[in-house]
């Protein structure tokens, strides 16, 4: 239906609403891209050597930029951590997809949880950050924790459908348990078998009555 306003035809109804335009993302300038990559490289090194609570000022200094440049790229520490760990998270997500059709669903789930622990204990403080992020989807670490929960949820559901894991187990609780194990391993560096022992105890609590 059309009406006229000031002599001009005006369409009303659904057709009158123009589709919203998606804002264009401007590409990063070459110098800004170099700064971004240097910050990621130095942050990864610093997190490995000193833990995730290392000084952001020191990371900026090592990257040859000011702290203001760091904050322009990463508004807070968790945003920087999320960017640094994205590669490892992508690898874990790929591994989860590879395990999606494994013949033993429970073993596949446990294998993936073990890989998470290995990742989380690489950087001191990461397991604690992941535990916090799991309860806050607005966190800068949510880019890591949210897809991890989704990938783990698919493996968990498959194991539950096979009767190998109790139906009252949730992926959120399971991820918190896994991060808790990683934190315990981080605090006990002289006990290399601790992760496997705690995972075994967790598995015994997960299994269904007929396994």
Provide a descriptive summary of the structure in words.
The chain has 211 residues and is mainly α. It has 10 helices and 2 strands; from the N terminus they run ββαααααααααα. A two-stranded antiparallel sheet has the order 1-2. A hairpin with a 2-residue loop joins strand 1 (2-5) and strand 2. Helix 5 (86-98) packs antiparallel against helix 6, helix 7 (126-133) runs antiparallel to helix 9 and helix 9 runs antiparallel to helix 10 (194-206). The longest helix has 21 residues, at 30-50. The relative contact order is 0.10. Mean pLDDT is 82; it is low at 1-25.
How does the SSE layout of this entry go?
Elements: E1 2-5, E2 8-11, H1 30-50, H2 56-63, H3 67-73, H4 77-84, H5 86-98, H6 105-120, H7 126-133, H8 142-161, H9 171-187, H10 194-206
Antiparallel strand pairs: 1-2
Helix pairs in contact: 1-2, 1-4, 5-6, 5-8, 6-8, 6-9, 6-10, 7-9, 9-10
